[in-house]
Design a protein that fits this description.
GO molecular function: (R)-3-amino-2-methylpropionate-pyruvate transaminase activity; alanine-glyoxylate transaminase activity; beta-alanine:pyruvate transaminase activity; pyridoxal phosphate binding
Distance between the termini: 31 Å
Radius of gyration: 21 Å
Shape: globular
Enzyme class: transferase
Pfam families: Aminotran_3
Strand order of the largest sheet: 4-10-9-8-7-5-6
Bound molecules: 4'-deoxy-4'-aminopyridoxal-5'-phosphate
Number of strands: 15
GO biological process, one term: L-alanine catabolic process, by transamination
EC number: 2.6.1.18, 2.6.1.40, 2.6.1.44
């Protein structure tokens, strides 16, 4: 039986002693006490199916036995030492993690959050290219540090204070809400209903149009018409599970490189097999980035994140010392290593593919039946369902109605996310543990 702080006292503390800017879901927020794999229990013992996974973070299940065991074992041996000394766990883990990456992506920097990882990637890219100008897509979320609030291009997350200098945005390659493309031009596991592409089958031009916009942004907005770094998620998460048209991201990376820049894949949500068909989201775009940032699923909820890059780029960071007290600490390394084992042993990537594809297809059947479902998109167990009041015009459903549906789901024991520009995309971001098989 739960014996901790009462619900009412917790609410008082939250309103008096915690930041008022803290995001809290639901009119009557749930107070979670316990978790096991895909399940969560609140302090009254009510059970929820967690389809949001702690904002796409829990990758192999809450309190996965293998990961918990590895954490306990390490905790009894050594909690902490900074990396000024050697400790076995970071070395064992670094070798295992980089083995999952293609090409020359072999040098890893450990941090504690996705924001720290992207901050470091930005610094790294600027050091390497000698160019300050940086580009991201509208609707992107890359973190909340003062620098990254510039890269993050959703006003919801921006305070009224100057953000990172030298950061620009280009039009988002959004086939559903943008001017070009349709559901068919996305890299999707199956055929899609909803708004169809204007182009002939197999000849979608949407990616090229968005690429032209990107080139224009560089040419019109950046000194010397040069962009040093381009950040992109493989599927935009917080922005509402936005999938780019098929022929956008790879040519965009090629263009940025052709003018001397580097490309950063933010795999914070899309990495670690969540997309099912591939371990990394960038692989679904058939490209290899210069820098990859990862967080969330990497530690199954434990504060752990990383930046992986090539030896050539890493060398440019050698002119000053890089220090991060907790980055790659023994606990985080032991947990990260056990998460990789759990993904492998439980077959979670395959599970994500099988269950995710089934789920998406079933949601599309519902879309055929109910006009309120404007779009169903995503890959594996990263799924977005966009709700509309007019399917033809793609008018976002009023946030009041979306809120009501969302509250009802919670009352029925189902936790899902909410995102997108209008807060009308239900983000279904599942655990991909074998319990779903
Ligand atoms: N990148 C992406 C794609 C994210 O979704 C997030 C967090 N929502 C971040 C970066 C920032 O991670 P963190 O909250 O750990 O700083």
């Amino acid at each position: 039986k739960y014996q901790g702080i009462s619900y009412d006292d917790a609410m008082k503390v939250r309103s008096k002693n915690l930041t008022p800017a803290l995001l809290t879901f639901y009119k009557k927020p749930v107070m979670i006490n316990q978790g096991h794999m895909q399940w969560l229990w609140d302090i009254d013992g009510k059970r929820y199916l967690d389809l949001f996974a702690g904002i796409v973070t829990v990758s192999v299940g809450h309190c996965h036995p293998k990961v918990t065991q590895a954490a306990e074992k390490q905790m009894r041996k050594l909690w902490h030492t900074t990396n000024i000394y050697l400790h076995p766990a970071i070395h064992e883990y670094a070798e295992k993690l980089v083995a999952k990456l293609p090409g020359d992506l072999k040098v890893v920097y450990f941090t504690n959050s996705g924001s720290e990882a992207n901050d470091l990637a930005l610094l790294m890219a600027r050091m390497y290219t000698g160019t300050f100008e940086t580009l991201s897509l509208r609707n992107a979320y890359h973190g909340a540090s003062p620098y990254l609030m510039g890269l993050t291009a959703l006003s919801t997350w921006k305070f009224n204070s100057p953000t990172g200098l030298g950061i620009h945005q280009t039009m988002n390659a959004d086939p559903y809400r943008g001017p070009w493309g349709g559901a068919r031009c996305r890299d999707s596991p199956s055929q899609v209903v909803g708004r169809s592409c204007d182009c002939a089958e197999g000849q979608c031009q949407a990616g090229e149009h968005y690429l032209d916009q990107l080139k224009d942004t560089v040419a019109f907005s950046m000194p010397n018409k040069r962009c040093g770094a381009f950040f992109a998620e493989s599927i935009q998460g917080v922005g509402g599970t936005v999938q780019f048209p098929k022929n956008f991201l790879k040519p965009a990376f090629e263009f940025i490189r052709s003018q001397g820049g580097v490309c950063i894949s933010d795999e914070v949500q899309t990495g670690f097999g969540r997309l099912g068909s591939h371990f990394w989201g960038f692989e679904t775009h058939d490209l290899v980035p210069d820098i990859v940032t990862m967080a969330k699923g990497i530690g199954n909820g434990f504060p752990l994140a990383a930046v992986v890059t090539t030896p050539e780029i890493a060398k440019q960071m050698g002119t000053a010392l890089h220090f991060n007290t907790y980055g790659g600490n023994p606990m985080a390394s032991a947990v990260g290593s056990a998460v990789l084992d759990a993904i492998e042993e439980d077959g979670t990537q395959e599970n994500s593919h099988v269950v995710g594809t089934y789920f998406i297809n079933k949601l599309r059947e519902l879309q055929n039946e109910f006009d309120v479902i404007g779009d169903v998109r995503g890959k594996g167990l990263m799924i977005g369902v966009e709700l509309v009041s007019d399917r033809e015009k793609r008018t976002p459903l009023s946030t009041d109605i979306v809120g009501k549906i969302w509250e009802d789901m919670k009352d029925m024991g189902l936790l899902v996310g909410k995102g997108g520009l209008y807060g009308t995309v239900s983000l279904i971001l599942l655990h991909f543990d074998s319990y779903y098989l």
